[in-house]
Amino acid sequence: MGNNKYKVLVIEDDDYILNLIETLLTMNGYQSLTAQTCDMGHTMFISYNPDIIILDLGLPDKDGIDFIKNVRQNFTVPIVVLSARTTEQDKIIALDSGANDYITKPFGSGELLARVRAALRIRRQNIPGALPKSQFKTGGLTIHYDSRRVYVGNCEIKLSQTEYNILSFLSEHSGRVMTYSSIVKTIWGCVDKGSTKKLQVNMANLRKKLGSKPGSNYYILNELGVGYRMVDEDCEIHETVAP
Amino acid sequence: MKIQGFIKDIVFSALILCTAFIIVITLHGFINIESIAPMMFVMAVFLVSIVTKGHKCGIFASLISVIAVNFAFTFPYFEFSFSLPENIFSCIIMLFVAIMTSALTTNIKKHERMQAENAREKMRANLLRAISHDLRTPLTTIYGSCSTILSNYDSIDQDKQIKLLKDVCAEAEWLNRMVENLLSVTRINSEEVSVKKTLTVLEELIDAVIVKFKKRYPDQKIDLDIPEAFIVIAMDPILIEQVIINLFENAVFHAKGMSKIMLRIFIVENSVVFEISDDGCGFPKDKIKTLFTGGGKYSSDSGKRHMGIGLAVCATIIKAHGGEIHAENRVEGGAVVRFSLEMEEDENGQ
Questions:
Q1: From the CA atom positions of chain B, what is the Rg in Å?
Q2: What sign for the dihedral angle of Cα A217, A218, A224, A230?
Q3: A225 to chain B, minimum CA–CA distance in Å?
Q4: B42-56, B240-254, B271-285: which has the minimum mean pLDDT?
Q5: A54-93, pLDDT tens digit by residue?
Q6: What pLDDT, on the 0 to 100 scale, is given for residue A109?
Q7: B168 vs A1, A17, B154, B175, B249, CA distance in Å?
Q8: CA distance linking residue B39 with residue B262, whole number of Å
Q9: Chain-centre distance of CA B210, in angstroms?
Q10: What is B198-342's CATH topology?
């Protein structure tokens, strides 16, 4: 076996789910490492330096959130959270602690693989020493970072300063859900009561200018009550939401 | 809460006793109060015991009454005398009345609470039974199909295996939808029947609904007609999403001959009306009244499922939002369900 496979560390305490994910990953050409507790996961992480971590939040020894915070102190490795917790608050806490993405149980095999691929793509972009990109492209949308111009197809879209800032921020983190508060913090610097609404108004204008309609938002996906996700660069339009 | 209730009880007791006192004092000039006063105070003690919780206030009130009667209204006036046998006797009677009354009222209150609890328990048991029944059906398919494939792996041809596995997938998806519905009910605060509302942009809600629905039914056509304006509604977005998805799925599952689903949203005064309709066979006439109660459906073992609990969940969610939901058949054929939600008052709300 060649040794150039992506190493995926799966931390999950349920035997069946672990078995399922392991099989799925192996069949799709990944090398999977498994752990069933937080401590074990940490040991595996330190010794194998995996390319991506799939993490269940409800682990027997510690809360997965602590694991994320712990890893994030020193590492940027993508973490995809796998969780049966479904409230928006849980998702927001996981994302704001540093998780790159979350999948709620139950999940389809296609969904899991798509999220893993998206997270790995983020890793490639974040390789130290890589030049900052000058442009972003997804579907018909192109953003030129240097000249701060945005095109849909060949038409230039006139955006306000704030709208451009939001769009470029989302595109820099494409494929990843950005919570309302993290966007607001980046764009306006501080969070107050009306700031989410300010963001929502800007997003509505942005969608209108980009020509998005409900059910056909090709560029920015809504995560109700959590935040927004820019569709990943150069991937098939609805890959991230395909079953 | 508890302390507040206790303070309230004390205030009530004091009020009642004062009133009794004042009445007796006023009557003082007109009639011989020596016979009236104890009666008045017995009544006061009785009232206090009924109004307040537990024994404490009642006993306390009776002690005060005894002292008041003894001190002020029996011979010798404005002087304590516990030597007279009738004084001691009236004291005992008052204590007895207080204790008996509060014991009685406490009992009645306890009984009422238990009855309510029983009713709720019964409802919960019924619901559990209904749910278990509904869960067992797909589980039968899943368990049966998997074990069939496992034990006959070499003898079943591939086509049959694929067919069985597809059934397993479909039933698992159905199970998941069921669990989602049940989970959404648990998001509703059961004691106050309220939800945690956040300001949600209508357009984003509809987008999320359509994306989620298309993921499950890629070929189903949906006609959209929603206002252009920027509309914000205070709601629990996940729950309202569930309502619309349930109504869409209801059309997919039960509207025979349906070709398209329509979602129309419009504003009437200060509320937003969501209208989900289809061009299928419509609701059965005899069921239209009980659609949202989930009743009647569980007893039957018929193959028609999903309908009852899905619509009942819709009704619960809308009610918890303080909105209204109605269903009817369209004149031109097909079913229509409308529900309404209050819009955000103005810009400075939150």
A1: 33
A2: negative
A3: 7
A4: B42-56
A5: 999 888 888 889 999 999 998 889 999 988 866 788 888 9
A6: 87
A7: 34, 17, 19, 10, 19
A8: 73
A9: 29
A10: Heat Shock Protein 90 (3.30.565)
Could B204 and A215 be called an inter-chain contact, meaning their C-beta atoms sit closer than 8 Å? Answer: no
Of A106, A194, A214, the CB nearest to B176: A106
The pLDDT value given to residue B332: 85
CATH topology of domain A7-125: Rossmann fold (3.40.50)
Test B176 with A224 for CB contact under 8 angstroms. no
- Predicted complex ipTM exceeds 0.90: no
Topology of domain B126-186 in CATH is Helix Hairpins (1.10.287)
The H-or-E segment that residue B60 falls in is helix B56-68
Question: Which of A191, A224, A229 to substitute to test the interface with B, most B CBs within 10 Å?
Answer: A224
Q: Residues of A5-26 as b/e, b for ≥16 C-beta within 10 angstroms?
A: ebbbbbbbbeeebbeebbebbe
Is residue B98 over pLDDT 80?
no
Q: How far apart are CA B237 and CA A200, in angstroms?
A: 14
Place of tokens 């009852």: B308
Element (H, E) at A156: strand A155-157
Cβ contact, residue pair A204, B187, below 8 Å: no
Q: Of B209, B203, B206, B197, nearest to B228 (Cα)? A: B203
| Domain locations along chain A | 7-125, 135-241
Measured between beta carbons, the chain B residues lying within 8 angstroms of A196 are 199
Confidence of residue A132 (pLDDT cuts 50, 70, 90): low
Provide mean pLDDT across the span A107-115.
87
CATH classification (class only), A135-241: mainly alpha
Q: Are A233 and A137 in contact (CB under 8 A)?
A: yes
Asked if residues A63 and A57 have their Cβ atoms less than 8 Å apart, the reply is yes
Contact between B64 and B17 under an 8 Å Cβ cutoff? The reply is yes
Crossing angle, helix B237-254 and helix B307-320, to 10 degrees?
Answer: 150
Contact (CB, 8 A) for B191 and B227: no
Instruction: Report residue A10 as tokens.
Output: 């799966």
**Collapsing DSSP states into helix, strand and coil, what is residue B258?**
coil
Q: Return d(Cα A230, Cα B248) in angstroms, integer.
A: 27
Tell me the percentage of chain B whose pLDDT exceeds 90: 16
Put simply, whether the predicted model's pTM sits higher than 0.80 gets the answer: no
Q: Which of B203, B205, B350 to mutate to test the interface with A (most CBs of A within 10 A)?
A: B203
Domain ranges of chain B: 2-113, 126-186, 198-342
**Distance, in angstroms, between A224 CA and closest chain B CA?**
7
Cβ contact, residue pair B203, A204, below 8 Å: yes
Span B247-253, average pLDDT? 88
Q: Retrieve residue B260's tokens.
A: 């398209």
Judge: A214–B350 Cβ closer than 8 Å, yes or no. Answer: no
DSSP A6: P
Cross-strand bridge partners of residue A102: A81
Asked if A50 and A9 count as a contact pair (C-beta separation under 8 A), the reply is: yes
Closest alpha carbon to B230 in A4, A101, A198? A198
* Facing residue for A222 by CB, picked from B198, B208, B216: B208
Q: Between chains, do B215 and A242 touch, taking CB under 8 Å as contact?
A: yes
CB atoms within 10 A of CB B339: 25
| Chain B interface test: which of A197, A207, A222 (most B C-beta within 10 Å) | A222
